[in-house]
């Protein structure tokens, strides 16, 4: 494979004991390379954003990180464990330490919000029902949905559904939460409220967040650091503090994204 074009806005931060680490990730489907040599580290307790235009591989990278796909090349370490090497019970244990919220929230429509949040506890613990319900109510309280516990997904707003999805992803007290486009489809006020929730959870619980998004205001509001993928470059073209990239980017695509100019 040919080397990826050199990026001018990659400002790497060396992380001691990274919670998430990608080393030289390449993903190809047949002869088509989606991205190559993606390398980064995520520190404990930070909000790390993966951004880029349509078709650059953001969601595919997320699926690699949580073990749904295997990379064509490279390695992924989650909480110090090699994702590829972990098999059987060890892999299940590792996966129980991460939480995922998909873009839609992925709530089961026939279940109340309380029942949705209880579901991971039913599948992965031996807690009695009363204890599972208590934990689920605590998680709903953390996202501001205590009063909506007995409502069905069809009876709540899109923003509430996203919050409920986060509550369910938090059910097993994961060390890392992966969020796929959490602000997609939300109005600016609701989106800002969700951004604040993510910041509060990261600060108050010490949870690490890896967030895939293309929403500029959210990136600037929640991101401690970010990487940017690019379809044309087939890889990373930026890494660093999103506010620094906004103010000092030199790569035309990065500058255009953060300043909303024509590249």
TrEMBL record:
Keyword field: ATP-binding, Nucleotide-binding, Transport
Keyword Iron tagged: no
SUPFAM superfamilies linked to this entry: P-loop containing nucleoside triphosphate hydrolases
Alphabetical list of SMART domains matching this protein: AAA
GO MF term list: ATP binding; ATP hydrolysis activity
Domain ABC transporter: 20-258
Presence of keyword Nucleotide-binding: yes
Parts forming coiled coils: none
Top-level taxon: Bacteria
Protein name, per record: ATP-binding cassette domain-containing protein
Annotated organism of origin: Teichococcus coralli
